Amino acid sequence: MIRSYFSGLASNYLNQSVSVLINLILIPYLLHSQGPQLTGVYLVLMTIANFVAVGIGWLAGAGVRSIATLSPASDRESIGRVHRVIVLGFAVYSTLVLAGMVGAGFLAGSWWLRGSSMATIEQARYACLLLGAYVWISYVHNADLALLTALLRQGEANLYRVAAQALFGLTAIGLLIYHPRIDVLFAAQGIATLVVAIAARINLRRRRIICPWEWSLPDWALLRQVLVTTGGSYFLFGLAQFSLMYADVFVVGAVLGSEAVAAYVVVWRIAEFAGLLLSRISETLSPYLTRIGSLGGVLELRAVFIATTRVQHWLAIAAGCGYALFGSSLVGMWVGVENRPPMSWIYPLCGAALVFQVINRHDVILHFATGRIGRLIVPHVLEVSGKIVLTVALFPALGIGAPPAAFILVQILGMTWWYRRAALQLVNVTWPEWWREVGGPAAVELGLLVAWMLIVGQGTMAWSWGGLLVSSVFLAGLLAFVVRWHLRREPDASFTSVAGLLSKY
User: Fold this and answer.
1) Do both 188 and 308 map to the same domain?
2) SS3 category, 262
């Protein structure tokens, strides 16, 4: 099992690397060739695609939990029935999304993009139609990927995602050479996903992981169990989670316009990618935590959670401080200095928001894996509401810096401590134990990194060779320190113990 975990994690990182490489090329290209308005339209449509996933994305999580508690050897029929329910749910929902996107395309120029040129409106209409087709294909394909994830074959599922991303990049390059339009990008996404989805389904059938499709009435009892009993809380939390992650894009667009959306995404996208990259450590662990929780005991779950949460704190703090120091240079290298927002203070804000996002995500994943996500719904709704209200209040003073500032304020005012308390209760860990195992080492690392940032300074370290050498030496020393600190921890929370537990399950 430990090999499958690291295989899933490595392939997940590969998928994220391919995705960020495509965005590193794509967004600057759109800014230079199509201008800020059409780039903003593309980013808003992609955000909408992510937003509509909230309505059904929870089904993958609910299905993974339902299948992960079953035995692949003795419960093959039950696994097949759950998979068919997931496919049906994705197909019905994505059909509704397709119809909605077609309707949105017809409203371009009258309900939205009013006053824009006919060329812009035409691209937006075709983009909506092609986006709807891409969503339909990718959602149905996601049912097969959820099945592989639940069977602890995340490496294989992620390789299909990598193939889709790579094929999208190649197809987009070929089409954009002849037709530099945003609707072409959605056509490329649909074609790439369709090819990979067909290949995945054929492979699953050939290996008899899934049976031939049988036309029959749905299993209503199973449908209710997956969609309502297990999936209801996943849906409500997913809605709140997405609102927390992407509502800022809609609020920025509504208040400041599409050009401000492009500026905000440029500033936040690298930090967001770093957060997604680090969160994959927790998300890849989720089906293993489910299996340990269902077959093992609290002590084993505690050992895995404490060791991994300590690692997540270290990585989150290092990434947040790194973006605070080098974020301006990274954005300038990505989109060009002329397209980089000039406010230097916004990068430390995004770095701090990144830290809270990663460490909170680890606590949330524990609730996902143990089926306790329902207890997070109310506090998460409060978190979303507080962030939106504070964002609107801070717009006059901070502009596009209002969303990360609002998120940080909400966390400091109590939300991050609530998540920590709820997670510690699930694994029977006290606050003194948490401080000894996690909080103390993280506080030492934060103090060292902040001192280093204050001594060196952002201007001196802005991507010079000398600065990179000093940074490498310091970070290598810090890594040696935290590894040595870790090796002095108690045996039941060591990496060796965690590897043994994953191998056991």
Assistant:
1) no
2) helix
- For residue 195, is pLDDT > 90? yes
Contacts of 464 (CB under 8 A, 6+ apart): none
| Identity of the residue numbered 111 | W
Angstrom CA distances, 95 to 134, 136, 196, 454, stand at 11, 6, 20, 54
CB 8 within 8 A of CB 154: yes
Contact 313, 446 (CB under 8 A): no
Q: What angle do CA 224, 227, 230 make, to 5 degrees?
A: 95
Partners of residue 108 on adjacent β-strands: 112
Unique residue bearing structure tokens 């394909």? 141
Of the three residues 189, 218, 247, the one that is the final residue of a domain is 218
Under DSSP, the state recorded for 206 is: H
Check whether residue 211 and residue 264 sit in a common domain: no
Matching residue, tokens 């590894």: 483
**How far, in Å, CA of 478 to CA of 455, rounded?**
16
Q: Which amino acid is at 307?
A: A
- Both 321 and 434 in one domain: the answer is yes
C-alpha pair distances (Å), 390 with each of 81, 407, 416, 425, 494: 45, 8, 17, 30, 41
Q: Is residue 74 part of a domain?
A: yes
Residue identified by tokens 């929780």 is: 293
Q: What is the mean pLDDT of residues 424-431?
A: 88
pLDDT in tens, 315-331: 898 888 888 888 888 88
Give the per-residue pLDDT at 198: 92
Residue 94 contacts residue 56 (beta carbons within 8 Å) = yes
What does the alpha-carbon distance between residue 88 and residue 13 come to, in Å, rounded to a whole number? 30
CA 332/CA 339 separation, integer angstroms: 8
- Give the Cα separation of 143 and 368 in Å (integer): 18
What is the DSSP secondary structure assignment for residue 439, as one 8-state letter? I
Whether residues 105 and 187 share a domain: the answer is yes
For the segment 276-321, what is each residue's pLDDT rounded down to a tens digit?
A: 888 888 888 877 787 777 666 677 788 888 888 888 888 898 888 8
Output the CA torsion 325→327→329→331 (10° steps).
Answer: 180
**What is the crossing angle of helices 465-487 and 298-335, to 10°?**
180
3-state helix, strand, coil in the chain (%, to 5): 85, 0, 15
> Which residues form the domain of 111?
16-218
Is residue 213 domain-shared with residue 264, that is, in the same domain?
no
Q: Which residues pair with 460 in a beta bridge?
A: none
Rounded Cα distance between 44 and 262, Å, is 9
